[in-house]
Amino acid sequence: TLPAKWLQEHKLKAGDDVNIEQKENMLLIEKTKKKKEIKRERIVLEKGDFNVYRSFLGGLYRAGYDEITVQFKNPEDIQILQDVADSLYGFEIVDITENQCLMKSVYTEEVTEIQPYTRKMMYVTKTMQNTLMKDIKQKTFSSKSQMFYLRNTILKQRDIIARTIVQHKLVNEKYTAYNTIANNLWNIAKNYYNLYVY
Questions:
Q1: Interaxial angle between packed helices 77-86 and 50-62, expressed in degrees from 0 to 180 and rounded to the nearest 10
Q2: Tens-place pLDDT, residues 132-173
Q3: pTM for this predicted structure
Q4: HSE on the CB side for 157, CA within 13 Å?
């Protein structure tokens, strides 16, 4: 018998396994970690465009896929796919053939905290706003590459927040609010960049 509150917090029910370790005069009880199921997907990409590839692969990343096999027609697309992998936390291209590559999550530990990513998004959004306002006042628009980098930094944060919520099934008001904030900050960053380019 274990305390009901502890069982509820750790989503345990009768018959589930726990680890028990004896340390001096104490017994340490912890929830047994289940082996993570690897989610795999195979897709074919033909367009050769970073935004198209990023959209497809970002969607699979946010949905919690761990391995994505990508087939492509043009061998030069591997550079675009590498740029996409670089824009996703913990994803790397681990195998390449002439017209196919394997992108894989290489996390050594799972992310569970999303507050730091949200704070970073807020800071980067403020940096974009300051850059935009400064260049408007000075009438010199030489920060386009910096604005694009900041925009993509926000996108990367938004995706890791969404992925963490999906992978850990964090469905409650707190995490719904974080997800909404992350999506809104992404929309602001995207629009700041578009406004800057305009």
A1: 40
A2: 999 999 999 999 999 999 999 999 999 999 999 998 888 888
A3: 0.75
A4: 29
